Amino acid sequence: MTNPSFKPSLKSVIFSALEQSGISRVDLSQRLGLNRNAVTIWAMKGSKIPFAHLATLSSILGLDPVYIRNLALSELHPELFKDDERIRSLGEITKNESEFLEILRSSNKINPKMNEEQKEAFRKFVDSLDGDVRITDSIKSKPGRRKKKVAEEPQKESTSEE
């Protein structure tokens, strides 16, 4: 039985994959364009695998580069990993949402921030926009997640002739 909370270390994943691949440490070092002993040095206690080599390592060893990147971030830069998790929790960004970001980023302001009055004005502006469908409170799921459920059409008043 496996422990669901167990998270392997970056080194254990890399060196297990290396062992299973049959590639020698010297050969891997050479494929990475490094000194022949570089990978052996990475295996030593206290030594870290440089972030800059992770994409190539993943490719050579047949590992998922996103998994390796996330594992490395969680170990080497936990504060960045937490920020990254927060961003991923927002869900998929649509084409229309990306247009907002493009406009925001074209302002040439570094990390622009809104005050409360501006946030309220922005909320009202967003509420005035057309959209593919209006999501009502009754069909919203977790914040940042979108359900693919179409809101009901507004009922038209019947004009019955008597």
Give the SSE layout.
Elements: H1 10-21, H2 25-31, H3 38-43, H4 54-61, H5 65-76, H6 78-89, H7 95-105, H8 116-128
Helix pairs in contact: 4-5, 5-6
Distance between the termini: 73 Å
The portion of residues forming beta strands comes to: under 5%
Mean pLDDT over the residues: 80
Q: Got a strand count?
A: 0
User: What class, by secondary structure content?
Assistant: mainly alpha
Rg over alpha carbons: 25 Å
Low-confidence stretches: 144-162
Specify the number of helices.
8
Query: Outline, from the CA principal axes?
Result: elongated
Helix content: 40-55%
Taken in chain order, the helices and strands follow as: HHHHHHHH
The largest pleated sheet is described as: none
Description of the molecule:
With 162 residues, the chain is mainly alpha-helical. It contains eight helices and no strands. Helix 4 (54-61) packs across helix 5 (65-76) and helix 5 (65-76) crosses helix 6 (78-89). The N and C termini lie far apart (73 Å).
